[in-house]
């Protein structure tokens, strides 16, 4: 325990820090070919997708009755960077229903969407055109390095195809596969958690805003996504429009 020992430890730590800083500088410059596979796995996390697009639609509904046809009345989408897991851009519109134009009291109580919020809005076909314009503005159009992320399969397996058919829109190829975070977590933990608030509790996360507000739930999904990535989960397609799980 002499002073010489302490000095040696300080010098050793300084050398380690110097080496790590040099490695980081080389990584930033893209000069990583010399790194061993172990170091590559340690310092560089591979990302299958550059961006995740989180969606959570809200739709017309009745209390204990099926509404036909059901229509999207809120269309939120968050663009999240896969490396930083931060929200980079937001698309959010309320949508005017055409077949059942008056919202039920139950629908308003569930979603927080009141009649005035949809009456003067675009219909779905117009809204979807704006969404695809947003994809172009965000340099996502005709690219395959992004993936939709949902909590549950309903949004993209049922609701979007139903709405596209109602609005005479061809379901785009980019909307035929997605990552359902319920299944991502189940694959990692062996536990399937049905409800979003229960998943937030499981991960020790607070509920943001109002559950069943589309935009608030997108933020909750973004927080779940960040937590799952932090636990080492791979965010890959779990579901597709053929009703067949892909993982």
Automatic annotation (TrEMBL):
The chain crosses the membrane at residues 6-27. Keywords: Exonuclease, Hydrolase, Membrane, Nuclease, Transmembrane, Transmembrane helix. Residues 51-234 form the Exonuclease domain. One of its GO terms (molecular function) is nucleic acid binding. Pfam families: RNase_T (PF00929). InterPro entries: 3-5_Exoribonuclease, ERI-1_3'hExo-like, Ribonucl_H, RNaseH-like_sf, RNaseH_sf. SUPFAM superfamilies: Ribonuclease H-like (SSF53098). It comes from the Eukaryota. This is Exonuclease domain-containing protein. It comes from Argulus foliaceus.
